[in-house]
Write a structure and sequence with these properties.
The complex is a heterodimer of chains A (381) and B (417).
Chain A: H1 8-11, H2 16-19, H3 29-33, H4 36-42, H5 53-62, H6 81-84, H7 86-96, E1 126-135, H8 148-163, E2 171-175, H9 181-189, H10 200-203, E3 216-220, E4 225-229, E5 235-242, H11 246-266, E6 273-274, E7 278-279, E8 292-298, H12 300-304, H13 308-315, E9 317-320, E10 333-338, H14 346-368
Antiparallel strand pairs in A: 1-5, 1-8, 2-3, 3-4, 4-5, 6-7, 8-10, 9-10
Chain B: H1 4-10, H2 14-21, H3 40-46, H4 49-52, H5 62-66, H6 69-75, H7 86-95, H8 114-117, H9 119-129, E1 159-168, H10 181-195, E2 204-208, H11 214-222, H12 233-236, E3 249-253, E4 258-262, E5 268-275, H13 279-299, E6 306-307, E7 311-312, E8 325-331, H14 341-347, E9 350-353, E10 366-371, H15 379-401
Antiparallel strand pairs in B: 1-5, 1-8, 2-3, 3-4, 4-5, 6-7, 8-10, 9-10
Classes of the chains: A alpha+beta (381), B alpha+beta (417).
Chain lengths: 381, 417
C-alpha cells in the first residue's frame, strides 16, 4: 500500500503537464533525469502489485536535497519496479553507479577465500571492521509499499530462518516493539541498532509506516553477526567486530549469508536477484552487492591533509562520521568504506577497502612523523 | 492449505511460500498465476484482514479506541470513488500512538466520500470526538448571520486580539491526504480566482509559498498569519505534506484582517482577525467574506463540501460541522493562577492554548482561549458561547484583582434537544 497515490487511473484524466512535479529547486538523481516526456510515458503504468511512478519518485519530490549532497530521489516498491520503470531507473542507475549500462552484467562473488590479506590492519588505528549488505525476499513488496501483513510475513519467515542458525552464528531475535527502552539504547550505543526513522528521505517514501510493527534485530550471542529486519530493506545483514581483522569479518559475512540463503531456499523462496542488477534492494544506490565494507579508523592527520579527498576518490572509498550516514566524524576517527555497490563483486569491493585502509594507515604514520606522503599517492582505481 | 496439486499446477515456489506463511489463505477460488508475481488483487486475498490488522495496544487516539477487527475486516477492501482506502485513512493514527494525556483523532478523510464509505469507523470516532454527536440521527445547523451576536466587544485591557477561523473544501477535488498534484493546483486556481473578485475592505493579494522570499515568509509567521512548514508527524503521516510547497500559499486582504491559507491541512482555511477586542466585527467580516467567496466560486460552477449530517466537510473529523475556532489572546494574570481556572473553562466549553497555536506553550500570562466544540452547534451559537465565556473570564479576573471571590459556572449543555 503506497500512501496517497493509489488513484493513478483517476489522475490520468489530468494532463501530464498538470501533474508534473516542480523540481526547479531540486538536486537529486531523479530530478536530474526525469523529464516531462518520460513522466508522460510512465505515468499510466504500474507494477503488478500496484506501485506507480509517483510512488517511485515521491521521496525525491519531497526532499529537494542539498547542493553538495546528491541523493537518489527514488525507491522501488517491489522487484518489478526496476522493470516497469526501466526508462527512468536505468539512467539513474547509470548516473549513480559510475556509468553502469542497462546491458551490463553484475558478478556476485561471496567466496571469502578470494580475498587477499585483510587480517592484519593495524589495531592501533583501525578500531573496528564491518561489512553490511541487504537482502530482499522474493514474493514480498519492499518497505515503501508493503502492507502490514506482508511486513509481518517477512519478519516471521526471517526469524524462522535465523533461529535455525547454529555454532558461532546461533543467536536471538529482539522485536522492536517488545524491547525495553534500556535494551534499545544499549544496542544503539553498541552501534548495533538502526535509528528510529526521522530522516525525511526515509519518511517521505513510506518506509516508516506502522513503526515499530514487524521490525526487529537479530544477533548472534557474540554480537558479531547481526540482521536488521524491515528497516529500509527486508533484511540488512551485518558482520562486525572490534579491531582490524577484516578477513575474519568477511569470512563470517559470507558464511552467514550463504547459510541464510540456503534456509530461505528450503522455505521455497529466494532473494531478489538478477544478472543485470545483482541483489535487488529498495534504494537504487544499494543494487548489485548492496555491500558496504568499512572500518572506524583514527586518521586525525590524514583527514586534515589537503589531499585527503583526492586519495579517497582514487581508492574508490568514501568517508562518513562514526554514527553512520549523515553524521559527523568524532575526534579524527572516520568511517571509511567502499563507495561502489554495483559493477564490482563483493570480494573486489572488500579488497579495495582492505588495500585502501592499509594505505591510509601508512600515510597517517608518515604524517605523524612529519614526513611527506607524496610518494604514496595511489593511482585511480 | 497448498496441496501438492496446486504446487504442481503453479510449478513455482509460490505455493510453498504461501503455505509456510500459515495464514490459512489458500481458500477456494484462489487463482495461481503462472509466475511468482502477485497482483494487488491476489496480494489482498493472500493476506486476510486479520494479517493486516494494526497493533494498537499502545495507542491513545479516537481511531484506536473505535476500530475493531470486525470493522477493519468489513472495510479493508473498500475504496472511495477516488480509490482512497481505509488503511490510508488510519495510517496517521497507526503511526502516532499519541500521549496518555492528549487524545488525538487518529484518522483523516481523503475525500468527501470517505465519511460515507467508511462510516462504520468515522461515525464512532465523530461521536467520541464531538461529545456524543451521532451522525446517524442528528443534523448539524449552519448559521452565518453575524448580526445576531450580542456583547461582542471585549475589554481591551485584557483582550489583545480576536480571531475566527474555519476551513472549506472544494467539492469534486480530493482532500490534502489524497489529492494529486494537479488536483491541488486546481484547488489553488479555483480559490485564487475567486479571491481576486473580492472588493472593498476585502480586496487583497495571493502569495504562493514557492514564490515567497524567506523574509516575507518569516514576517507572516511572526504576525501569526502564516502556517508552519509541516513537521508534525500527525500531518506528515497523513501524507498531507507531499510535494511541499507546490500549490500552497496565503492570500490576505490589504489590511491583513482577512486571510486564506491554501492547501495546508485543508483545501482552504479562512481566518478573520484583528488586534483588540471587537469580536463582533471580526465575526461579521468572517461571515461576509465567506459568503462572498462562496458566491464567487459558485459563479464558476464550484461549491463547498457540505451536508446536513456533518456540516462542512474537512480533512480531520475534529473540524467537521462548523470547522470553527473563535478565540482571543487574553491576559489573565490572576485567574490563570487560580486552581479553578481549568474547571471554569471546561464548564463554559472553552479551551486554552499557547499563543503559538495548537501544541504551543503560553508566553507569560497570555492565553489563547477558544471554543471547544465544532459540530452540533451553529457558527453563531459557538461564537456567542465564546463571547459569553470570555466576558465571564474578564469578570473573574476583575473580581480577583479587587480581592473578591469568583464562582465556577455550571456546565453548559451539549446539544440542543
Amino acid at each position: 500500500m503506497p500512501f496517497g497515490n493509489t488513484h493513478n487511473v483517476l489522475k490520468l484524466k489530468y494532463a501530464s503537464s498538470e501533474e508534473y512535479p516542480d523540481l526547479s529547486q531540486h538536486n537529486n538523481h531523479m530530478a536530474k533525469i526525469l523529464t516531462p516526456a518520460i513522466y508522460e510515458r510512465l505515468r499510466s503504468k504500474q507494477t503488478p502489485s500496484g506501485f506507480t511512478l509517483d510512488d517511485v519518485i515521491q521521496t525525491g519530490i519531497d526532499n529537494p536535497g542539498h547542493p553538495f549532497i546528491m541523493t537518489v530521489g527514488c525507491v522501488a516498491g517491489d522487484e518489478e519496479t526496476y522493470e516497469v520503470f526501466k526508462e527512468l531507473l536505468d539512467p539513474i542507475i547509470e548516473d549513480r553507479h559510475g556509468g553502469y549500462k542497462p546491458t551490463d552484467k553484475h558478478k556476485t562473488d561471496l567466496n571469502p577465500d578470494n580475498l587477499k590479506g585483510g587480517d592484519d590492519l593495524d589495531p592501533n588505528y583501525v578500531i573496528s571492521s564491518r561489512v553490511r549488505t541487504g537482502r530482499s525476499i522474493r514474493g514480498f513488496c519492499l518497505p515503501p509499499h508493503c502492507s502490514r501483513g506482508e511486513r509481518r510475513g517477512v519478519e516471521k519467515m526471517s526469524v524462522e530462518a535465523l533461529d535455525s542458525l547454529s555454532g558461532d552464528l546461533k543467536g536471538k531475535y529482539y522485536a522492536l516493539k517488545n524491547m525495553t527502552d534500556a535494551e534499545q539504547q544499549q544496542l544503539i550505543d553498541d552501534h548495533f541498532l538502526f535509528d528510529k526513522p526521522v530522516s525525511p528521505l526515509l519518511l517521505a517514501s513510506g518506509m516508516a509506516r506502522d513503526w515499530p510493527d514487524g521490525r526487529g534485530i537479530w544477533h548472534n550471542d557474540t554480537k558479531t553477526f547481526l540482521v536488521w529486519v524491515n528497516e529500509e530493506d527486508h533484511l540488512r545483514v551485518i558482520s562486525m567486530q572490534k579491531g582490524g581483522n577484516m578477513k575474519e569479518v568477511f569470512n563470517r559475512f559470507c558464511t552467514g549469508l550463504t547459510k541464510i540463503e540456503t534456509l530461505f531456499k528450503d522455505k521455497g523462496t529466494s532473494f531478489m536477484w538478477n544478472e543485470h542488477l545483482g541483489y535487488v534492494l529498495t534504494c537504487p544506490s544499494n543494487l548489485g552487492t548492496g555491500l558496504r565494507a568499512g572500518v572506524h579508523v583514527k586518521i586525525p592527520n590524514m583527514s586534515k591533509h589537503a589531499k585527503f579527498e583526492e586519495v579517497l576518490k582514487r581508492l574508490r572509498l568514501q568517508k562518513r562520521g562514526t554514527g553512520g550516514v549523515d553524521t559527523a566524524a568524532v575526534g579524527g576517527t572516520f568511517d571509511i568504506s567502499n563507495a561502489d555497490r554495483l559493477g564490482f563483486s563483493e570480494v573486489e569491493l572488500v579488497q579495495m577497502v582492505v588495500d585502501g585502509v592499509k594505505l591510509l594507515v601508512e600515510m597517517e604514520k608518515k604524517l605523524e612523523k612529519g614526513q611527506s606522503i607524496d610518494d604514496l599517492m595511489p593511482a585511480q582505481k | 492449505m497448498a496441496t501438492s496439486f496446486t504446487r504442481m499446477m503453479s510449478g513455482r515456489n509460490t505455493a510453498v511460500l504461501l503455505a509456510s506463511l500459515g495464514a490459512g489463505t489458500m481458500a477456494t477460488g484462489y487463482l495461481m498465476t503462472d509466475s511468482n508475481i502477485l497482483s494487488a488483487e491476489e496480494r489482498r486475498k493472500l493476506y486476510p484482514p486479520s494479517a493486516d490488522y494494526p497493533d494498537l495496544r499502545r495507542h491513545n487516539n479516537c481511531m484506536a479506541h473505535a476500530l475493531t477487527p470486525a470493522i477493519y475486516g468489513k472495510l479493508r477492501d473498500k475504496v472511495t470513488p477516488n480509490n482512497w482506502s481505509l488503511d490510508q485513512c488510519i495510517q496517521t493514527g497507526v503511526d502516532n500512538p499519541g500521549h496518555p494525556f492528549i487524545k488525538t483523532v487518529g484518522m483523516v478523510a481523503g475525500d468527501e466520500e470517505s465519511y460515507e464509505v467508511f462510516a462504520d469507523i468515522f461515525d464512532p470516532v465523530i461521536k467520541d470526538r464531538h461529545n456524543g454527536y451521532d451522525p446517524k440521527t442528528m443534523k448539524h445547523p449552519t448559521d452565518l448571520d453575524a448580526f445576531k451576536i450580542t456583547n461582542g466587544m471585549f475589554d481591551e485591557k485584557y483582550v489583545l486580539s480576536s480571531r475566527v477561523r474555519t476551513g472549506r473544501s472544494i467539492r469534486g477535488l480530493s482532500l490534502p491526504p489524497c489529492c494529486s498534484r494537479s488536483e491541488r493546483r486546481e484547488v489553488e486556481r479555483v480559490t485564487v480566482q475567486a479571491l481576486a473578485g473580492l472588493k472593498g475592505d476585502l480586496a487583497g493579494r495571493y502569495y504562493s509559498l514557492g514564490d515567497m522570499t524567506e523574509k516575507e515568509q518569516q514576517q507572516l509567521i511572526d504576525e501569526h498569519f502564516l502556517f508552519d512548514k509541516p513537521v508534525s508527524p500527525l500531518l506528515t503521516s497523513a501524507f498531507m505534506a507531499r510535494d511541499w510547497p507546490d500549490a500552497r500559499g496565503i492570500w490576505h486582504n490589504n489590511e491583513k484582517t482577512f486571510l486564506i491559507w491554501v492547501n495546508e491541512e485543508d483545501h482552504t482555511r479562512v481566518i478573520s482577525m484583528e488586534k483588540g477586542g471587537n469580536m463582533k466585527r471580526v465575526f461579521e467580516r468572517f461571515c461576509r467574506g465567506l459568503q462572498q467567496v462562496e458566491k464567487l466560486i459558485q459563479e464558476r460552477g464550484w461549491e463547498f463540501m457540505w451536508n446536513e449530517r456533518l456540516g462542512y466537510i474537512l480533512t480531520c473529523p475534529s473540524n467537521l460541522g462548523t470547522g470553527l475556532r473563535a478565540g482571543v489572546h487574553i491576559r489573565l494574570p490572576n485567574l490563570s493562577k487560580d486552581p479553578r481556572f481549568g474547571k471554569i473553562l471546561d464548564n463554559m466549553r472553552l479551551q486554552k492554548r499557547g499563543t503559538g497555536g495548537v501544541d504551543s506553550a503560553t508566553t507569560g500570562d497570555t492565553f489563547d482561549i477558544s471554543n471547544n466544540d465544532r459540530l452540533g452547534k451553529s457558527e453563531v451559537e459557538l461564537v456567542q458561547l465564546l463571547v459569553d465565556g470570555v466576558n465571564y473570564l474578564i469578570d473573574c479576573e476583575k473580581k480577583l484583582e479587587r480581592g473578591q471571590d469568583i464562582k465556577v459556572p455550571s456546565p453548559i449543555t451539549q446539544f440542543r434537544k
